[in-house]
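Task 17 of the worksheet. Students: predict the tertiary structure of the chain below and write it out as structure tokens. Keep your answer in the requested format; marks are given for formatting as well as content.
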Amino acid sequence: MSGVGLKLSDVRFAYADWQVQFDMDVAPGWFVAVIGPSGAGKSTLLNLVAGFEQPSSGAILIDGEDVCALPPARRPVTMLFQDHNLFAHLDIHTNVALGISPALKLTAADRDRITAAFDRVGLSGLERRRPGELSGGQRQRAAIARALVRDKPLLLLDEPFAALGPALKNDMLDLVAEIHREGHMTVLMVSHDPQDARRAASHTVFLDEGGVVALDQTKALFARKDLAGLKAYLGA
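Model answer:
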């Protein structure tokens, strides 16, 4: 697995009287935090890339291909949500296996991938537990394992760790950062906490008033003094 480039060119989306317009260019292998005030369009940006929302105009290019006409299942994307989207009535081995085959038709190689994913996220021995028998952090680890077996080059994270305590959230951020480095995937992570960006992201994009204000290396972005909206957002 390796990362892909992502380009949004004049992508427009509107809901009632609220609208956004995105122009953004992400190089292969970047880990990009997406920050900004509520209503800036952070989750909408991810939903457009994933295909859960359709733009009224513009192009979304992944690895140079416009994917706007492709349904979510055909895009080279995995999305991880805050509620982890695990099926409560299935054990986590089955939940992870669904990431490979919705019909659960698994080869020996597929089963090896699942075992390796559980090892990687520290859940070996818990495969037959249901989500309700796991802690919040373990459920998120299971969701990360499912993302690993899907083996898609673009990973989208929509505040998946917001409900976790600080120490556990940092553990999850560190795990995703390690997986990102090992797999060279491209990552976009929405967060309301600037510290998440500082901890894990190589680059950060700041959204405000329905558009991309700035995209820069994380340390450089937070050091900028010329962005009034960013200063207001950070409370600086």
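Marker's comment: The chain has eight helices and ten strands. The mean pLDDT is 90.
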